[in-house]
Specification:
This is BON domain-containing protein. It comes from Paraburkholderia kirstenboschensis. This protein has 129 residues and is α+β, with helices and mostly antiparallel strands. The chain has a domain of 78 residues: 2-Layer Sandwich (Histidine-containing Protein, Chain: A), CATH 3.30.1340. The protein has three helices and three strands, in the order H-H-E-E-H-E. The chain has a three-stranded mixed beta sheet. Strand 2, helix 3 and strand 3 form a beta-alpha-beta unit. The chain is elongated and about 90 Å long.
């Protein structure tokens, strides 16, 4: 039995169209928040809010770095700052134990900082006693 090439093309096109329709529906539903009616305004606004939070966290982190960098006695190159919703975590090393509290106080003084978790440790330079 010989199958008509036009019929084969029509079946292939129907399969592709059905697959694309099913794929676009599942990907659209996965990105929509629970209880959404499918409006693009709801999806767009929910997609921008995490970005805004990340931008604010990044800006706060930069402000804390800038405040630490103003103090020349502190080597900010070995300090990492993580900011999340106003909570700042300090990680890394300093060369003097007094700098641990000083860096925490500097971070607390930055506007927008709600709390500071200080995980700084003292690291002596190589060859030092």
């Amino acid at each position: 039995m010989k199958i008509n090439p036009v019929f084969q093309f029509a079946v292939a096109a129907a399969i592709i169209a059905t697959s694309m329709s099913a794929w676009s529906q599942t990907s659209g539903m996965a990105s929509a928040p629970a209880g959404a009616t499918g409006s693009s305004a709801t999806t767009a606004s929910s997609a921008t809010s995490p970005t805004t939070g990340r931008k604010a966290d990044r800006a706060l982190r930069r402000k804390v770095y800038a405040a630490i960098a103003k103090h020349k006695e502190i080597d900010a190159g070995n300090i990492s700052v993580i900011a999340k919703d106003g909570a700042v975590t300090l990680n890394g090393t300093v060369t003097d134990a007094a700098q641990i509290d000083a860096v925490a106080d500097i971070a607390k003084s930055v506007s927008g900082v709600a709390s500071v978790t200080n995980k700084l440790v003292v690291k002596k330079p190589f060859g030092g006693m």
